[in-house]
Task: inverse folding
């Protein structure tokens, strides 16, 4: 009757159960696909963070090695001068070389300060005079005995300095050895560029 009246056979109607099952499977497939895409996205972000952290650690370690090595000659100079100070030598008698222009030179220098932090003698000259250091530097050195730090007296001039406290009763005060960080910071910048390029290269091949 259905075939005669409407032109098709009722036996050929889709199986509703099969159709429902197909739709359900398709929904599950789509959900699984969406889950996989989210998983891939989060794994990619996590991997990117890990790679970035590794290269940041490499740069930080390298930068610290370069910076700490910049203190090496100053540590010896300041401690040797402090030993002579303790033996009773006067600051002026320990000046055996000409002056060093801190504004321009890469040479190390040695300056001496009284207990109040006033410069009294030395080879390091800044803007034509012995440099004055912030009072807080001396206060902290009094507590720990030896202070190693980066000092920026003015823009564009950064120095690696080592300050040692002198407790000699004849000539108490402080001795400061320093030198420019210009070349060290150029190497730090080069290291940063190398690490950044390696990171980009690794991400490209991944």
Result:
């Amino acid at each position: 009757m259905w075939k005669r009246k409407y032109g098709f056979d009722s036996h050929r109607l889709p199986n509703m159960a099969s159709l429902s099952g197909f739709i359900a499977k398709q929904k599950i497939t789509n959900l699984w696909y969406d889950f996989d895409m989210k998983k891939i996205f989060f794994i990619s972000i996590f991997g990117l963070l890990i790679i970035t952290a590794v290269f940041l650690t490499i740069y930080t370690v390298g930068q610290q090695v370069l910076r700490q090595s910049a203190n090496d000659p100053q540590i010896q100079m300041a401690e040797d001068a402090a030993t002579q100070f303790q033996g009773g030598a006067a600051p002026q008698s320990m000046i055996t070389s000409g002056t060093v222009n801190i504004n321009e030179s890469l040479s190390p220098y040695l300056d001496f300060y009284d207990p109040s932090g006033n410069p009294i003698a030395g080879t390091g000259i800044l803007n034509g005079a012995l440099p004055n250091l912030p009072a807080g530097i001396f206060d902290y050195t009094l507590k720990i005995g030896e202070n190693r730090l980066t000092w920026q007296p003015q823009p564009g001039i950064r120095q690696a300095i080592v300050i040692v406290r002198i407790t000699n009763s004849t000539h108490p005060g402080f001795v400061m050895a320093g030198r420019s960080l210009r070349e060290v910071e150029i190497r730090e910048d080069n290291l940063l560029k190398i690490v950044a390029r390696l990171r980009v290269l690794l991400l490209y091949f991944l």
User: Anything to note?
Assistant: The chain has a mean pLDDT of 82. Strands lie at 100-101, 109-113, 119-122, 124-125, 146-154, 157-166, 173-180.
